[in-house]
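ARCHIVE CARD
CATEGORY: sequence design from structure
SOURCE FIELD: tokenized fold
FIELD CONTENT:
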């Protein structure tokens, strides 16, 4: 399903000053938080966004979503507490924890982290310290050797189960997830950080971030919009109900097919395969293969969402038309919309179910069969 992005946005932004917490302050025309949300929402490899916010700030977070789907959770008093709450909602095997206060996250950083996770429990972008370092104490200033010293950034990426184990075992709060993970012995790889990915912390940082965002807007890679079309027909006979778009409708008919004959889900599956350039449903689930006998078609669609994500494609919208005289689809549209959204990991507003008859003409009109059409729109990296 792609990775889970947890954006922590529950801090008070005290060092930044001002009346509004820094994550909601305007930056290059939009609230700071919305920049990070957009980076993840446009990444086809991202399957879930979780945002930790302070109590009473859910509405402010929703105003930053501009159509992106995200799970909201209340954060805690410390960053560790906020991440802990966010982590409890993570559904994917891989999790990226990101500061809302770093609006300039790049695709290169994300790619580097996902690559590093192939050989480590966790990874974080890092930059070497270039200035000379000293420690100022009562006895005076002492030089600190900067060799092998790095500044860590976010996102900090982990295998979800390893990070969860570390959080269960950790006794105290930590400044970031790498220090918490190291305290529990997880292995961490350092990837290439970027100066532009700095954390907006002090009042003067806003101007620098604004300049960088204005300049980079042109260079941000825009994902390609792709479309796929699906069509499916199943024969109809008398029976005790039909499966359509993941919902069972009790009626005196049934649809004949090798699987549960859900023409709606089959059309969507084919449309997504089309968008991802991955062939058709028969290529992946041959009807000759006995393991698909009576199968729940939701499984087909879930699998295709997964392989599409691996191919760099994320569905963002689906429109379905069911063509039949009976059963009546209207009363079930809402349930279908919710089920399809759930299977595909979409917001229900991005799923549309329509139905039509063919005025008693043709095979659908005579009730010999039912047809379904679907169009899936997706984003490709
Ligand atoms: N954060 C959080 N929950 C907390 C504290 C911090 O979710 N209890 C988040 C912040 O919203 C921010 C990120 O962690 O996106 C990095 O923290 P920091 O830059 O320190 O932000 P603040 O804590 O908000 O700022 P300050 O320390 O200046 O008050
Ligand atoms: Mg803080």
């Amino acid at each position: 399903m792609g990775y889970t992005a947890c954006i922590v946005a529950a801090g008070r932004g005290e060092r930044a000053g001002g009346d509004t917490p820094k994550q909601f302050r305007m930056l290059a025309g939009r609230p700071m938080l919305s920049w990070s949300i957009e980076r993840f929402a446009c990444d086809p490899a991202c399957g879930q966004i979780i945002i930790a916010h302070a109590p009473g700030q859910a509405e402010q977070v929703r105003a930053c979503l501009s159509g992106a789907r995200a799970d909201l959770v209340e954060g805690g008093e410390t960053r560790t507490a906020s991440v802990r709450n966010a982590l409890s909602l993570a559904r994917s095997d891989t999790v990226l924890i990101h500061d809302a206060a770093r609006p300039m996250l790049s695709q290169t950083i994300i790619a580097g982290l996902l690559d590093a996770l192939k050989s480590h429990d966790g990874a974080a972008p890092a930059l070497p310290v270039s200035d000379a370092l000293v420690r100022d104490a009562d006895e005076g200033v002492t030089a600190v050797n900067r060799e092998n010293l790095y500044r860590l950034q976010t996102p900090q990426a982990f295998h979800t189960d390893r990070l969860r184990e570390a959080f269960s075992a950790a006794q105290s709060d930590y400044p970031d997830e790498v220090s918490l993970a190291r305290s529990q012995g997880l292995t961490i790889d350092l990837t290439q950080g970027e100066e532009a990915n700095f954390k907006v912390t002090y009042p003067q940082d806003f101007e620098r971030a604004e300049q960088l965002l204005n300049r980079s807007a042109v260079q941000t890679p825009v994902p390609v919009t792709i479309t796929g079309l699906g069509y499916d027909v199943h024969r109809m006979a008398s029976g005790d109900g039909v499966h359509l778009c993941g919902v069972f409708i009790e009626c005196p008919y049934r649809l004949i097919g090798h699987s549960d004959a859900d023409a709606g889900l089959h059309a969507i599956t084919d449309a997504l395969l089309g968008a991802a350039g991955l062939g058709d449903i028969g290529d992946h689930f041959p009807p000759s293969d006995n393991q698909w006998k009576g199968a729940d078609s939701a499984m087909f669609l879930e699998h295709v969402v997964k392989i599409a994500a691996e191919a760099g494609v994320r569905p963002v919208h689906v429109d379905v038309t069911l063509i039949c005289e009976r059963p009546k689809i209207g009363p079930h549209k809402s349930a279908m919309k919710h089920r399809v959204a759930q299977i595909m990991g979409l917001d229900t507003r991005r799923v549309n179910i329509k139905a039509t008859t063919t005025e008693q003409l043709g095979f659908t009109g005579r009730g010999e069969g039912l047809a379904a059409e679907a169009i899936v729109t997706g984003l490709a990296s």
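CARD ANNOTATION: The radius of gyration is 25 Å. The domain at 3-130+148-219 is CATH 3.90.550.10 (Spore Coat Polysaccharide Biosynthesis Protein SpsA; Chain A).
SHELF: design records, drawer C
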